[in-house]
């Protein structure tokens, strides 16, 4: 009887300890737990949209992709740790295909984790292929050089280069995807490694990490 009573008295204590630990990890000050939740969210991409035109596009990482059609879509978007609205333009003829969202037409906000760079959402779901491979391979760097319109600059996507996405529209549209790079970032994050460089706010980042695509230079008026 004594042993049974002792066993029963320990159970509530163990449960109380578990609750305290869980509460500590869910508290705003637990940056580690919040960073892991944000990394998990970053793996997914979903846009539900409406607009005009019709298109189909597929991207198997930045290194191979194709699509056909033309559409302008206004979307409710979930870009991992960011949610909100955006405008997506897609156009192509199978051998050449572009699909991108415009930073100046975003209304995105962070719902978990550290805020990304101001232009990061424009890199989510971005696609630029010529003869099925990255357009960069034919026309050089994604950075806009002298004489180029910064509005048409393609940002270096870093870890987002390993996204797999599928988009389609016929007045109504959908854009879905999985970030394999962010999946790896999520797994390695449990060990303390942050290959995406996104566990701290953008204005506090000092790492020059290949995976963490650098911010664009501000446009200069001339």
Q: Layout of SSEs?
A:
Elements: H1 2-26, H2 31-41, E1 44-60, E2 65-79, E3 82-93, E4 96-101, E5 107-110, H3 120-123, E6 127-130, E7 133-134, H4 136-139, E8 163-179, H5 180-189
Antiparallel strand pairs: 1-2, 1-8, 2-3, 3-4, 3-5, 4-6, 6-7
Helix pairs in contact: 2-5
Could you walk me through the main structural features you see in this protein, from its secondary elements to its overall organization?
Strands 1, 2, 3, 4, 5, 6, 7 and 8 form an eight-stranded antiparallel sheet that branches. This protein is globular. It is built from five helices and eight strands. Helix 2 runs antiparallel to helix 5. Mean pLDDT is 77; it is low at 1-9, 142-153 and 206-222. It has one domain (36-198). By secondary structure, the protein is of the alpha+beta class.
The total strand number stands at 8
The geometry reads as globular
Series of secondary-structure elements, N-terminal to C-terminal: HHEEEEEHEEHEH
Instruction: Return the structural class.
Output: alpha+beta
Taken as a percent bin, the fraction of beta residues is: 25-35%
Helical segment count: 5
Summarize the main sheet: 8 strands, antiparallel
Q: Which range best describes the helical content: under 10%, 10-25%, 25-40%, 40-55%, 55-70% or over 70%?
A: 10-25%
| Spatial extent as radius of gyration | 22 Å
Number of domains: 1
Cα(first) to Cα(last) distance is 87 Å
User: Whole-number average pLDDT?
Assistant: 77
**Low-confidence runs of at least 5 consecutive residues:** 1-9, 142-153, 206-222
């Amino acid at each position: 009887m004594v042993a049974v009573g002792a066993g029963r008295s320990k159970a509530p204590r163990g449960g109380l300890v578990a609750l305290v630990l869980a509460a500590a990890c869910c508290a705003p000050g637990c940056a580690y737990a919040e960073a892991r939740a944000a990394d998990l969210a970053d793996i997914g991409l979903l846009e539900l949209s409406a607009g005009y035109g019709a298109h189909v596009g597929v991207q198997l990482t930045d290194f191979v992709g194709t699509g056909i059609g033309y559409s302008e879509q206004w979307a409710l978007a979930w870009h991992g740790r960011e949610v909100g609205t955006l405008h997506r333009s897609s156009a192509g003829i199978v051998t050449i295909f572009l699909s991108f969202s415009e930073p100046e037409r975003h209304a995105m906000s962070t719902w978990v984790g550290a805020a990304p760079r101001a232009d990061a959402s424009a890199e989510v779901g971005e696609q630029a292929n010529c003869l099925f491979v990255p357009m960069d391979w034919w026309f050089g760097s994604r950075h806009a050089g002298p004489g180029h319109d910064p509005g048409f600059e393609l940002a270096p996507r870093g870890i987002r280069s390993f996204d797999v996405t599928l988009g389609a529209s016929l007045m109504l549209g959908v854009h879905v995807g999985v970030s394999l790079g962010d999946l790896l970032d999520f797994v390695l994050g449990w060990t303390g490694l942050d290959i995406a460089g996104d566990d701290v706010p953008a204005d506090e980042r000092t790492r020059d990490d290949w995976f963490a695509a650098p911010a664009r230079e501000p446009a200069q008026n001339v």
